[in-house]
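Continuing the batch. This is chain 6 of the set; chains 1 through 5 are on the previous pages. Same settings as before, nothing changed between runs. Recording input and output for traceability.
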Amino acid sequence: MQADTPSSPDDLTTGPASSPPAELDAELARQSLHLRPLSWGAPLRWIKLGFKDFVRAPGIGLFYGACFMAMGWALLKVFESAPAYTLALSAGFLLMGPFMCLGLYHASKQLEQGLKPDFGQSLLAWDTRTGTLAIFGFVLLVLEMIWGRASLIVFAVSFDGMPDFKGSLLALLNPENIDFIIAYVLVGAFFAGLIFAVTVISIPMILDRPTDAITAGLTSFKLVLTQPGVMLWWGFLLTLLVVAALLPWFAGLLVVGPITGHATWHAYREAVSYQDEPPPASQP
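Output for chain 6:
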C-alpha cells in the first residue's frame, strides 16, 4: 500500500511546522507559563538570595554597583541645573535600572545552573534578545517622556517660571505650596508605579526565555494586579533600600544596586512557573 502524500504543496506549509522557530518558541513559552502565589516573606527571601549571589560574584556586582552610583551623581547634577526635570529623570533608575541589571540577572542565572559567572558574558547578556529589549525599552522611554511632560506642567501651573536649585528646595519644603507638593508627588507616584508594574519581572523573563515584549510586560503587570499586597511590599523594600543607599553620596548603591538586581532575578524565578521545569531552589 502506498503511503499518503500531500495533495498539494500548500499542505506542506500549513500548521505549526510552517511558523519560524523563534515564533514557535515564544508561543510555547507563552502557553506554558503561569504565576505562582507568593508569600509575604518572599521579598525578604529574595533579598537574602540576592546578597548570596553578590557574595559569590563580587567583581561583577561591584562593577554594576559603580554604574548605579555614577547614575546617582548624574541625577544630582541634573537637580542642580534643571530641578524641574529631576522627578521625571529619576525614572532613569526605574527605566535604566532593569536594563543595567541584565548582567546581574545573567550572573544569577549562571549561579543557579551551577556555573561560574563570566564578566564578559554579563556585559553581552542583551545580545540574544536585542529586538525584544529594544521594543520594551522604547515603550518605557515613551512613558518617561510623558512623565517628564506631566512634571513640567505641574511646575508651570504652580509657579511663575521654573525655580532654580535653591528655589525648588524651598518650594518643596514650604507648607504654603501643599497643593503643588501633593500634585507633584501624585504624578511621580503614578508613573513610578506604572513603570514598576510593567518591569518588575519582565526583563529577567525576556532574558530567561524567548518571550516577546508584550507577553513579558503583561505578565509582570498581571503579577502586580493579582498579588498587589506582596508586590507593594516588594516595591516598598526596594524603595527603602535605594533611598538608604542614596544618603552617603550614593555610595550605598555600590552594594545595594547589585543585591537588588540579583534579588529581582529570584523574584522572577519564584513568581513565574513553566511546565517544563521544576520550581527553583529559592521556592520552599
